[in-house]
Design goal:
Helices cover 36% and strands 36% of the residues. This is Ribosomal N-acetyltransferase YdaF. It comes from Streptomyces lavendulae subsp. lavendulae.
Length: 184
């Protein structure tokens, strides 16, 4: 298995179906915190549903679609980043994240997203990278800002999460904006 160092004690790695027990334990530790804005805790409630979630993402990755990556600190899964959508033919993708409290506040999500964006733009030729975030998720909005993304607007009440309609901010960057900066 490959991993990319994000810090002396933190690595980014592909999150696959055989990580289901580790993934479920992570979700259980951060279920309420993560679930404020992310749907994984509602979809991975036991080992079988965690396997299904990771398996569906593995199938999508095999078809050159969405992908999941975990972030470990001192060998423990504490969060991750993902491509919720990845369309090589159109040159458009979306990057996202989730984190349990134990991994928050260290800049690991920003570093991991830089790795994903750099790969998407420089290796895969993506033209546009989006970041969709609930308007109340200030930490995630701060990541988009640190990544140099531009806020394009708000989709009002477009996302139903736990019975509440949320507004979603759309942030993006274009390939020429990314490649104007040094490689990660």
């Amino acid at each position: 298995m490959f991993a990319i160092d994000l810090a002396d004690d933190a690595q980014l790695f592909p999150l696959e179906i055989w990580h289901a027990e580790e993934f479920l334990a992570h979700i259980d530790r951060g279920r309420e915190f993560i679930g404020q804005y992310v749907g994984f805790p509602d979809r991975a409630t036991d080992l079988e549903s965690a396997r299904r979630l990771l398996g569906a993402n593995a199938e999508s990755a095999a078809a050159d679609g969405r992908r999941l990556y975990g972030i470990r600190v001192d060998g423990t899964l504490v969060g991750g980043v993902l491509f919720p959508s990845f369309d090589a033919a159109s040159g458009n993708c979306e990057v996202g994240c989730w984190m349990e409290p134990a991994g928050a506040g260290r800049g690991l999500v920003t570093k991991a997203c830089r790795v994903l964006i750099d790969w998407a733009v420089r290796e895969r030729g993506m033209h546009r990278v989006e970041w969709h975030v609930a308007t109340g998720n200030k930490k995630s909005i701060a990541v988009a800002e640190r990544l140099g993304m531009t806020r394009e607007g708000v989709m009002r009440q477009n996302h139903l999460h736990r019975g509440v309609r949320q507004d979603t901010e759309v942030w993006s960057l274009l390939a020429h904006e990314w490649t104007a900066t040094p490689a990660v």
